[in-house]
Amino acid sequence: MEESGQAESEQPLQTFNTHEVGLASIPRWLEVLLAKEFFNSCLVHEAEKKNEENTFCLDCCTGLCSHCLPPHRAHNLLQIRRYVYQDVLRLSDAYKLMDCSSVQSYKTNSTKVVFLNQRPMTRQFKGSGNSCIICYRNLQDPNLFCSISCKVHHMVNNIKSEYQSSLALPCAQMTPETVLKLPVAKKRRSIAPLPRIGCRAVCLQEAEITAAMNRRKGVPRRSPLY
Q1: In what order do the strands lie in the sheet with 86-90?
Q2: Is the pLDDT reported for residue 19 higher than 50?
Q3: Which residue range or ranges hold the B box-type domain (predicted)?
């Protein structure tokens, strides 16, 4: 956030704690921030010079250009910077809002910055060194994420997988009663019945042969004498 002596907003800003993240714990400002495309021309001030949207209002969840700032002076503002044509935050600003540990930081103009989103890669990293556990970009030890979005994505996926696994019954807790409650009948219906036409024909042929072999000859009758 910009430290320019601005008055704080009336409502405290909800920070993002990755150690206490839940299914509904991601603040709305963070979702909008990661989805927003910055450094585009402001639609409200298209005719003005220097109308790039390089500031984000955390209270209003919107991008701002320099001409949009006056009504938001009392709000929590976050300055967006550019590094290798990508949106970055100053590490000191990002740490005020979220836990940036294990996120790779870079130094530009004697200032450490972190990427908001993962950068496009021309080829996938296949080396044996350290890499981002989400997009596999090459990283320096001991970092695990190349950007803030990768860390948020990883945390949310872990929470969802833990929540879904908690709905399933562990194998160690299975009893004969719980096994009987499984939808076995539905599985049996899906099994196609075995063809019996050929078997029936073979059985009939064998039965006819057996009956012919066991058939007794009738009493011989002589032809009448004339």
Answers
A1: 81-83, 86-90, 111-115, 105-108
A2: no
A3: 42-80
What pLDDT is attached to residue 40? 95
The secondary structure element, H or E, covering residue 25 is none
Q: Does 68 fall in a domain?
A: yes
pLDDT above 70 (res 177): no
Among the listed residues 86, 89, 44, 93, the one whose alpha carbon sits nearest the alpha carbon of residue 65 = 44
Number of structural domains (the chain) is 1
> Is the pLDDT higher at 216 or at 59?
59
Domain membership flag for residue 217: no
Cα–Cα distance, 42 to 47 (Å, whole number) = 9
Give 122's contacts (C-beta < 8 A, 6+ positions apart).
Answer: none
Query: What is the dihedral angle through the alpha carbons of 14, 15, 21, 25, rounded to the nearest 10 degrees?
Result: 20
Domain enclosing residue 42, as ranges: 18-117
- Name the residue among 20, 55, 31, 40 with its Cα closest to residue 117: 31
On the question of pLDDT at 133 being above 80, the answer is: yes
Average pLDDT score over the chain: 74
Q: Which residues are registered as beta bridge partners of 105?
A: 114
Q: Which pair of tokens denotes residue 11? A: 């409502």
On whether residue 78 sits in a domain, the answer given is yes
